Amino acid sequence: MEHVLWIGGPPRAGKSTVAAGLARRHGLRLYRADAMTWVHLDRAIAAGVPAAIEWEAMTPSERWERSTPEQMLERSFLAERGQMVIEDLAALPTDPLVVAEGVALPPSAVRSGLAPRDVALWMVPTADFQDRRLEETEANPARRRLARLLREVIGRQAAECGAPTLVIDGTRGPDATLALLEERFAGALGRGPRAETTGARAALAREVNLATVDQGRGYWARPWADGDPEAAHSTFWCECGGWDCTSELRRSIAEAAAGPLLAPGHRDPGGRT
After folding, report:
1. pTM for the structure as a whole
2. CATH 3.40.50.300: does it fit domain 4-191?
3. Of all helices (H) and strands (E), which one includes residue 45?
4. Cα–Cα distance between 70 and 189 in angstroms, integer?
5. Is residue 159 within 8 Å of 110, Cβ to Cβ?
6. pLDDT, tens digit, for every residue of 20-54?
7. CB 108 within 8 A of CB 82
8. How many CA atoms lie within 13 A of 91 on its CB side?
């Protein structure tokens, strides 16, 4: 899997930001493990994974308000999801390179040799940094407790598996962190392959947006969810395919599914605005 750049780590380490920056700046395919949450849950249920079956059968209140962080972690079937991530990545085209990021990326991929050390990095936040980010972005106390436990567990797994790690303490901003990753992955980025045309880059942005659409629809399809998925809003990429475009848009699931999504004044390869 030398065509994959691995960016793992617990929640609120900044993985998504730098992975998106790498993908957009260098014309790479982005694989977000979080966008596969509901696909993986359905796959685990079909395979008879007890933790997944138990998780699906619980109400949100039972899941988040009446469970300890350790119980929540067990029901996340993290080990099984790690194997699913590997299966997903193995099924992706090798052109262009893939940037894979997410909590579910298994550090054991480094120990097994699936993730070569020069194309792998686990971003591990300090407790203080993660707490600050959680206070800013996560209102659910139970989710905050689970995130803290994941920091401990994933940090320990990364150390045990010999996965290269980067401590995130807030002294380095997103741009500096992105530059550091570009330096670490310079060999792979130089070898490529990368998406070189506007059309190819627009197609990659479309993939990211459709994955977000599927993620939203997957959530609202759960038996305990109540709402209209098509009216729900999320953040999507501009699909113009421009090399310097980093525009994002808030759109409904229905709008994103219909596409193309374009920032004001931007054009897609077909010439539409």
Report:
1. 0.95
2. yes
3. helix 37-46
4. 39
5. no
6. 999 999 999 999 999 999 999 999 999 999 999 99
7. yes
8. 7
